[in-house]
Amino acid sequence: MYDRARTVAWSVGLAVALALVALVSATIGPVSIPAGTVAKAVLNEVALPTLSGAGVGWIRPFRFTVESSDAVIVTELRLPRIALGAAVGFALATAGTVMQGFFRNPMADPSIIGVSTGAAVGAVAAIVFRPAIPLVPNLQAMAFGVALLAGFAVYLIAREGGRTPVATLLLAGVAVQTFLGAVVSYTLLFAGDSLERAVYWLMGHLHAANWGKVGAVWPVAVLGFAVTFAYARDLNVLLVGEDDAQTLGVEVERTKQILLVVAAVLTAAAVAVAGVIGFVGLVVPHVMRLLVGPDHRVLLPTSALAGAGFLVATDTLARAGPAEVPVGIVTAALGAPFFLYLLRSREVHSL
Length: 351
Fold this sequence. Notes:
Elements: H1 4-27, H2 35-44, E1 48-52, E2 55-59, H3 68-103, H4 115-129, H5 139-158, H6 166-188, H7 195-203, H8 211-230, H9 232-238, H10 242-247, H11 252-274, H12 280-292, H13 296-318, H14 327-344
Antiparallel strand pairs: 1-2
């Protein structure tokens, strides 16, 4: 039976944990800034609406004294990166939860339908060819567009007789990923001076974060989550099998189409701004399933918040050392051994 209070309790706890991780993350960097100073700098940016004769205006109720250099570091450099990391982790964990429920397989992740590799093709093409061909769209637009095309191609290949068999979709995704991986490798042969930038993007990073990217990803992440949460009950029913789900009143094909589209959009948006970051959409939903159970009405919000916190934490580790490393390396270095531990302890099993 669905326990709404339990969902709220877990969600509030994870939201508080995310806020604490974000606060700690904002203190860490080449210039160490105390947590109190970070909090003051953030509060100084809070604006509240007010009514006046001229209409609706905005006031800033807090006026804490903060060094201008510290305020700039916090609000213009670290907070955008933290907010972008949270958005990307939120989107990837949501998409991963949907894919694992959709395929009824804990090994499924957001890249399983070729979206991440499609984004890699678009991004690498933009990096390599845009300097010579100005008509080529910018990196984010190319990555997002080609990612969605790859996901759509996988869906069309797998569709047969008005249905989309899950096994066929999985195999089509593997085949398309392999082909697109070859395209990426071939394109890198022509990278020249752009090779380092292309390889760095493929590793997954958040170093180029800004408020524009945050404003582009968060609405997509929230809207995508809202749609998937509306289908949480249908995802639960799909776990028993498509035939039984149809008998219980679920419009199976329509539900599958919507969930695939939303998962593809979430993954494409995340990868377009951050590169290929693995294991967030694989490990986080699986761990949360062990903690809260398989009910997607609980699993979706908890996985999304845990994914946001996980990526902020791993990005903090990525930039905490003497030299910053791409966050994709850190997520893989932490995620792969942990998943192997779950596998050896028999915690990984079919849904």
